[in-house]
Amino acid sequence: RFDTPVVIRTTMRVSHSKGVVTLGERPPVPKEVGPFPRTQKKYVMTAMWARERHPIVEERLKTLAAYAEECPLNRVEYRDRKLGIITSGITYAYVREVFPQASVLKLGMTYPLPHNLILEFSRSVEELVVVEELDPFLEEQIRALGVKVRGKDIFPPCGELLPERIAELAAEVGLLPAEGVPRPANQAPEGLPARIPVLCPGCPHRSTYFVLAKLGVPVAGDIGCYNLGCLPPFNAQHTMGCMGASVGVLHGMAIAGLPERAVATIGDSTFFHSGMAPLANMVHNGSRGVVIIMDNGTTAMTGHQDHPGTQWTLHGQPANVIDIEAVVRAMGVEKVRVVNAFDVREVEDGLKDCLAYEGVSVLITRGLCVQVSKAHGGTYWVDENACIACGTCFRLGCPAVVKSEARNPKTGANKAAIDPTLCVGCDVCRQVCPVGAIHAPEGKEER
Ligand code: SF4
Ligand code: SF4
After folding, report:
1. Which of 372, 393, 425 corresponds to the end of one domain?
2. Is residue 28 part of a domain?
3. What is the structure's pLDDT at 190?
4. Is 180's pLDDT higher than 70?
């Protein structure tokens, strides 16, 4: 109808929620696709045609603004007219919970705004408030209409506006009686120790971050489960901006003349998504640094989607597999090492070898995500008599490695134990124990 792209913006709380939804009618998608329209003036945004296109876009915005006035996504719910609230998205649900009596203008379409609807609503209520998360996007536009409205002076721009917080802040300025502030339904008891997120037992990234922490090199990180390498016990990732940024930042470190040898860590999926272009840039410009491609054969963090390096398409059809090693060699990387991610020594030797190289090198640490492979190599155990409580295995950050009640009589430090309900037998802890106190289950050969 409007010949326009539509963006549906979901907020964090919606993206992190799940529930039962009732689907509406789904109109069939036309199977027949006609020839591609040769409307270059619309689809080729070169300068001369972009100038011609601009007035059309402006006109379209006016048409959309008129539509916003009648669009059923924007609706007024009149109740008590002492307080009127303008809101949109998930905050509408919070507002209904916290102010069940207030009149509400719910904006389902937030650009362009329905000016007349807003003006009419503002005139129909005694006090007008905007409740929106983060920046005052709605509030500033409403103010620009000459409407007296409150918003960010009550609900600050930082942090999430959950119902309890909205209620608390509203009570502070008298929009709610103090005694009406609801308490969170599921409040954790006070004094519980914090549980930081950790890599799963059997995660193939564990050995790499253990080695990176041991060598103490600067690490430009990327987005994926391996971002957990920035947290204790590793503390071995020092930057993370956006997908693919690790390789570009590594290049920047080299250009800036960083005296240390530096490393970028990037997952296989992220490498395909946005790591190849900066790697080409590094090679082309004769840069220096080690790019570790942590190939766990999936896109783990977002739910194990396939990617160009896996055997299946997202629709479960057989796919053409793109070989990461072949790609980086074809891009001109001369120093390429491929190691078993579950072999700590291989990872360490490979990394040291790459760090010693003068130019751009790539270390591919290969090991399937344990949530995909479901591999279980048996339950490992610690010989308490042999354990000297050196703490090395704790530095792996495996949730299955726990402190035993037993202590080293000289140092008083806790010895290690393995939680059999969590261990999946990846063997990594056994490899790092300096005194051989960790053992594979009976019958499994120890390398
Ligand atoms: S073998 Fe060791 S590192 Fe691997 S899951 Fe078990 S306890 Fe954790
Ligand atoms: S690495 Fe070995 S000796 Fe050190 S705490 Fe762990 S089990 Fe004990």
Report:
1. 372
2. no
3. 85
4. no
Residue with the smallest CA separation from ligand 1 atom 1 is 425
Determine, yes or no, domain membership for 283.
Answer: yes
The token pair at 390 is 């050196």
Q: Verify that 120 and 230 share a domain, yes or no.
A: no
Measured from the alpha carbon of residue 436, the closest ligand is 2
CA atoms within 13 A on the CB side of 326: 4
Burial 68-79 (b: 16+ CB within 10 A, else e): beeeeebeeeee
Nearest ligand to residue 433 Cα: 2
Q: How far, in Å, is the centroid of ligand 1 from the Cα of 342? A: 11
pLDDT band for 445, please (50, 70, 90 cuts).
confident
- Residue 114 in any domain: the answer is yes
- 328, 352, 372 — which closes off a domain? 372
CATH number at residue 88: 3.40.50.920
Report helix angle 47-70 to 115-124, nearest 10: 30
Do 290 and 309 have their domain in common?
A: yes
Decide if the complex's ipTM is over 0.90. Answer: yes
pLDDT over 90 percentage in the chain: 87
The length of the chain in residues reads: 447
Cα of first residue to Cα of last residue in the chain, in angstroms, is 67
- Say if ligand 2 is within 6 A of residue 95 CB: no
Residue 321 and residue 426 in one domain:
no
- Using CB distances shorter than 6 Å, the residues near ligand 1 are 201-202, 380, 396, 398, 400-401, 418, 423-429
- Number of structural domains found in the chain: 3
Are both 391 and 326 inside the same structural domain? no
- Residue 67 lies inside a defined structural domain of this protein: no
Domain that holds residue 406: 381-439
Which one has a higher pLDDT value, 229 or 195?
A: 229
